Amino acid sequence: MEIQIFKKMEKKAQKASGRDFVKIGIGILFMAGVLLYSFSTSGNIPNNTFLAIAALFGAYMAMNIGANDVANNVGPAVGSRALTMGGAITIAAIFEASGALIAGGDVVKTIKKGIIDIGAFGSHTDMFIWAMMAALLAAALWLNFATWFKAPVSTTHSIVGGVMGAGIAAAGFSIVAWGTMGKIVASWIISPLLGGLIAAGFLYAIKKTIVFKEDKVSAAQKWIPLYVAIMAWAFVTYLVLKGLKKVWPSIVAFVNEHLFTLLPATKKPTLLTALIIGFIVGIIIFLLVKRKISKERGQITNDRSGINAYFTIPLIFAAALLSFAHGANDVANAIGPLAAISDAVTSGGISSKAGIPLWVMAVGGLGISVGLALYGPKLIKTVGSEITELDQMRAFSIAIAAAITVIIASQLGLPVSSTHIAVGGVFGVGFLREWLDTTDEATIIQEKERRLEEERAMLQAYKNELATLEQMPEKKKTDYQRIVELYRLIDDLEEKIKKDKKALKTATKIKYVKRDAVKKIIAAWIITVPAAAIMSAMIFYMIKGIAS
Known about the structure:
Elements: H1 2-41, H2 48-68, H3 71-79, H4 85-103, E1 107-109, H5 125-148, H6 155-171, H7 178-211, H8 216-243, H9 248-258, H10 271-295, H11 304-309, H12 312-334, H13 336-347, E2 353-355, H14 358-385, H15 392-412, H16 418-471, H17 477-506, H18 515-547
Antiparallel strand pairs: 1-2
Helix pairs in contact: 1-2, 1-14, 2-5, 2-13, 2-14, 3-4, 3-14, 3-15, 4-12, 4-14, 5-6, 5-13, 5-18, 6-18, 7-8, 7-15, 7-16, 8-10, 8-12, 8-15, 12-14, 12-15, 15-16, 16-17
């Protein structure tokens, strides 16, 4: 029997090992393709070796973004079973790549959010190239390490840490803009708190207006169109602000020329414009959803599973839109160092801004799709099911929280992380479930304590009656019968009290959020910037030693 078990384990291990080799092989082929392309298209440029190696690091970084960061966009939808793993990976890969290639930023600051002062490099272009290469590789290695430990971390914070560490190694601590770093540290608290509070607030509203009602179908018919319309409003606003910045002038020109002069001629969309567009789409979605629910009224069961069915399609759209916006916004930022290296190599100087060539955006867009397909399922499972149990309405609350939090934070100038927001939303809905059920549990415990006191009082009354009867000098037949009955009642009641006391002692607070997962994720968030910075500094010294 044991031999058969060991044989089965050996077969599974061999199968898993074979899959791992295939995944590694595909990843190496992608990076090799990027390396060869870079060499073949930059042969006449001095320092093209540095550019080719940087492109290799960029491909590795992009794959790690796909493996780790993208899970936040589709994890809740998979955990709630609104999407299968294969469907989620397909949607995310298509929309992430589309966002990067279609609406990705055409110009990005080479030093993310002003982390370091590039003036400190002076005319030392090589030193700057080495620093950016170190930052890129360190951020990718940290993301790889975090993915291996199944910890969703921030891509932006990883690259920030990498740039900071390489900058310090190259020019000392004075190069760092510590005020900006303070804001980033603050975002470790702001991002998950905002995401968690908004997600919990929406879930509580759904529970109060629909789930806790006796006639859930009628309540759903009234409220779900409104909730889905709010979601559409938030996502369209988010998409316009974050995903259409590059193509906005073209959109304005087309609309004003072929339709009506409706849009203001601005370089990027304003919050008011985005809100108005989102509101119009929200009204249309409200009417469509209301009509659809009215038609399906007789087909939906009056229970939680029936209500959850209404949120499946909105969740699929949310996963797609989040992926598109992420590809348009975060991927460009993450490959910023590669764009900076490309600009420095081709121009021979250092610029505070660098245009992102199409091939660099392609590395980012295709790389995240490859990384997501190969290694994304691990983090998707972590976000979707290994922190707390999710269903469609909980996942819906998390998705809408992600969009609203980014809109609020961007307008307040807060450098929040989409990773922290999404995971914070998962924490929020989990802790809300605990709070609601703990409130019920507290009521149950109070009721048990009250009954236990009543049982003790009754036991004492039986004992007092028994003592009185036994002390009577003359007893009737009925007295003896009562004494026998009292002994039986006292024995039964003492046994019951014993069991009730034991049950009361073991009554504990319900925990729906896995504490070990919370501790691991928060620890990874805290050490992301310093870990990436230390690795980046070490890599910078290695590159400097080899190149000098």
